Structure formats: structure tokens, C-alpha cells
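Z., the sequence and structure:
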Amino acid sequence: MLPLTDHATWPVSLRGPVRLPPSADLVSNADDDVFILYTHLQAGSAKGRGLGYIDNTKDTLEISIELKASHYKDEDDCNEKRKDTKSVKARAKEKGKDQRNGENKKVEHSPEASLLATVSPKGKGKENTQQLTEQRKTKKGKATKELENGKRTEYPPEAEPTTHAKAGFAPISPPSPYRCLTGKEKRKARRSKDKEPASFAPVLEDLTIDLRLAQDSTALRSRDGDTGSVVWRASLDFANLILEQIRFRPTEGLFDFEQLKSAHVLELGSGTGLLPLLLSPHVQTYTSTDLPELLRLQEKTLALNPPRPVNLVLSALDWSDLASDYLTPAQRRRIFKPANPLDLILLVDCIYNPALLPALIATVEHLATPRQTAVLVVCELRASDVVRKFLESWLERPGWSIWRMEDGAGMGIQYGVWLGWRTV
């Protein structure tokens, strides 16, 4: 969990682990926001996609998520993971060359270099060579005596520190200060320090992730209001966006991924378990909530895609249980309380049934900790009246600031994406 005290020092552009870009608009009127969203949708090239599910005829759905490097290769706003490998090596090589040149210049002023640089008359070269040899023998004999007298330590080969990191961000151990290094060893150690860690190498290769997801192909028709039993396109598009940003690290990504690593994330209406399966490896704790019958589908999904994430928690939660105005905060906590305060609440394509919106807003308010919990809402734009009612209900709650992300936070104009932040 992110420490609460750290949030006071966060920059203005960060709400929990979510980046708030300068292009985000503060929402003050639901009608205005809906007008802007649907005007852009009608003027854009987004095509109608039906209700928005992937395939509601299969009980086991096989999908592939393709992470494309081409989406980020041509952008200028990218971090150290996007550096060119050749230029990094070239800079390191050039730096090492400059250091070696400086070292050679220093050597020219040493007594030994003076002897070597002297242009001796005929018959004197042999004398100079003998003098240099005697100096070297004297130094070697002195070092040997120091070793024998205990004034100098010689480490065995197996105890010598390594000059490279085997994996990840493991620090590079410096050479021991007690061991006499040759000039070649000194130069090698310096070059090792100058090189950038291998983990900063650019990751610009495409990646395909194959998954199998459990669905209930009959529930969408037979159980009234049961939409979570199939995979929806919004979850797939959101997962694709976040996983690409985690892999290729653009500087203007939706999340601060260092903060996300330490975050406790709770998803409302997680359905078949696509997002819990894919995003839980990138956070500290991921709590997936939905109705009990849908959690059984998630268990099947986890069984189809081993190994099960150890930081994933499945918790049954019915929004209507928290909706009553007669419940006190203590009573709501007895109904549902996360083990730790939340840093992020995710709602992906949960805005569809007007009758459930008051219960959804009440649940969000119950779970959100002021000045700690960011609320990220992703909604495929279908019925404008449902989106309007959702925003009106949320804006009526005191102490909330809500921003609309431009262009669906990178998912496209067919999506509305809002970031909520509670101050009281």
C-alpha cells in the first residue's frame, strides 16, 4: 500500500498512481461533458460496435493481446527504456577512450615514461632498458614484502568481486581497494562503471499474450442484468493500453508505474477476470470484486491460465448492499471492508444500467479514502442519458473532483475516461 503521508508531497499532476495530464478537463457540468464526448464521437471515424462484447457464444474464449512497438517507436516523449542501444554503447566507448587518453597523458610524466620517451644516443638504449627493469623489480619486491609482513592483502580469485550485474538492477560491485590491480584491470573496471545497466536496454519488440477466459454463454440472455459473464471489448482495450505502456514506457502514460508497483488496486465489476489476471503482476495487491456467481467464473479463468497470481484476492461484493441511505459508515464497513486502504479503484465498463448507478456511486464513496484513493472510470460510449445520469450522481457528492481524460486516455474517442479524487 502507498504510504498516506507521501501524498502530501506528490506533484499536482499525480492522483494516487494515476497521472493527471494537462489536457484533462475538470468536469463541473454533466450536460456539457456529455455534449463534448458525443460530439467528438459523431464527428470522428469511430464505427458502431454493437453492445461491445467480444463473443457471447463460447464458454471458453481464446484471445490474443498484441503489444505493438510501432505505437511508440516514432514518439519523441519516451524515457530511458527507449534509448538507442548503439548510441549508448558508442557513448560508453567514447568516454572510456577519453579516459584512457587522459591516463596515457599522465603516464608520460611518470619516471618510467620519461625513460621510455627518451631518445637515447647509440649505445644508450640498452642502459635505459636495464634501468627500467631494475625499477620494476624493486616495486615488485616491495609489494611481495608487504604481502609477507601482512601490510597488504591479496584476495583469492573466488573472493574477487564481479564487474557485472547478472540480472535486473543488481548493483555492480567495485574492485577491492586492498588488491593491487594492473592497468588493464583498472581500465576494465572503469569501463564497467560507465556502462548503463542491462535492464535499461530498450524493449521495442512486439509481444503477443495468449489467454483463455471462462464465460457463461447463457447467462447474458437468461439472467436479467447479468452482463459480467462475458468478456467486453472495453476491458480488452484497456488491458492492451496499460500493458503496452508497461512494456514500452512512454513518458505520458496513464499511470506512474513506480507508484503502481506499491499500490493496492480494487476493481468493481471485474466479470470474467481478464484485468485481474493481466494487471495483478504489476501491483502490490489486486482485489477483484463482483457477484459470487461471477467469482466462480474468475476461478475457472485462473485455472485456465496458471500460475495463479499470489497477490490476487477475490471478494464477493453486491453494490446494492451498500446503497441504503440508512446505513451508518460502521455498518457499511461490516458489510465490506478491504484489508488495507485502497490506492486505486477501477471501474471498466460498469456504466450501463441506470438502476444500478446510485448503488455504484455509494460503493465508490464508501471505498475511497480521501486524498489517497484515485478512482478511474472507463466507459464505452453507448447511451448518452446513462452517462449523463452517472456524472450527475457523482457530481452531487460533496468533496469530489472529477476530470475527463482527452481521447479516452489513449483508448480512442469511443470511450469516456474519468479520474475522480476525493478531498473530504
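The longest strand covers residues 60-67. The radius of gyration is 31 Å.

Let me know what you think.
H.
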